[in-house]
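**Discrete fold encoding**
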Amino acid sequence: MTKLPFYEKVGYAMGDAAANLVWRGALAYLAVFYTDTFGLTAAAAAMLFLVVRLSDGVTDIIMGMIADRTNTKWGRFRPWILWSTPFLALFMILSFTTPELSYTGKLIYAYVTYIGLTIAYTLNNVPYSALMGVMTPSDTERTSLSGFRFAGAFAGGLLVMGFLPDLVAYFGNGNDAIGYQYTMYLFAAILIVLMVITFTSTKERISPEVDESVSLKSELTDLLKNLPFIILPLLSVTLFFYYRDIYSGIFFVIVMSAMWLLIKKLTKEPVDNMSGTQRDMLDLLTNKPWLILLGIGFLTMMFNGIKYGTIAYYFKYQVGDELIAGKYFIALLVVSILGALSTDYFSKRLGKRKLFIVSLILSGLLTVAFFWVPKGNLNAIFILGCSAEFFAAMMPTLFFTMLGDSADYSEWKNGRRATGLIYSAGTFVQKTGGGFAGALVLVVLAGYGYDGMDKSTIEASLPGMQLLMSWIPATFAFAGAALMFFYPLTSKENQQIGAELIQRRAQLITV
């Protein structure tokens, strides 16, 4: 077993602290920035969030393939963390900049900068997530590393969500557009420093064999031919999610039925006749733990994303003091760090699967209780929110740890390990869930007539905010708990698979 030194775990955690200057900031404040400062309607911003998820579906998979086939003296994944950082910092600033343009011009600018931000995030975070899978072969060490990672993530989120409103007020001095832009200058500088720390302090110890008989160019060309596998399901889900009418429902059923038939056909093809991309896809489609984790990743991100995407609105209008939102975020993220660091302890006693189910149910129940909180009762808001967050913080920690387990399972079962592809799908469903969560917040608010530039619409939208803080997100938590009951890998099986893989790799080295 490769036990990771403490400094390396901390160094790895700095990468997610940096990423969450973007991720938590965009998730928590980009929606309210678009509607209340930038000037987009809630409906237009919702469609923006959904459309960008379509580009993510392609770029995440491509990045996973590229990272798996990267070969440098620094490893496969670490170089991408360094190379992508300047672009991530740049688009972070541009996304929160308000140029003097017409409404159409602003809408185009928002699409370009937000898509640029998600692509830069993909270039950075897909390799970063996959790095955890090659730093150690031990599933218990990965659980510990994941705890450090998400403690770092929540610390980065703490800086953004806890202090962004005050920093915007300080730098803007009454002008929120200027305040957001200058605040992002500060966060971008911090991001660069933290990413460099991650690059210099981590090490890749597992070097899976990659089939180099086929060039990356031909693999990408093959992927382009199979884009319908990615684009059409996403498009059908997006249309059904946004329009929710009979026509989008019929299109969704047709597309998903066609995809099911194509997948059945693919699984019957002789493996020798398949391209590398098709073999990778087949390995994933027959990897039951990975498939279940994709669903879990989406549902948990919807659960957390809806809550976080509503907080800025909730405190601004339901509580009546938007600056208290920063203090609430600080409280949540302090508890989140404790929850993430506690995951290793509880998973050793309950097992990852059981702990995931318990955390989903308890966090969901505590979230539902928000529905009965009297307006402005800060004590109840903070107690319920922090209690629910302690268990919610375990979810992403467990999710990315278990993705590593599914990568081990794929290598054990098929003799091939596409770590980058497996983790890219994981980051993709996380981002998809976050995008859909942000869009759902805006769709619900738009349904209640909310217009951030028209204060007369606020009162009628308050019941929608109440639902978005309670029943709506909790529904996704309960669905995730039900799905996790079907997850097949136990702690004992993970240990057996890990031991057998170590033995196989040792035999290959001796040969």
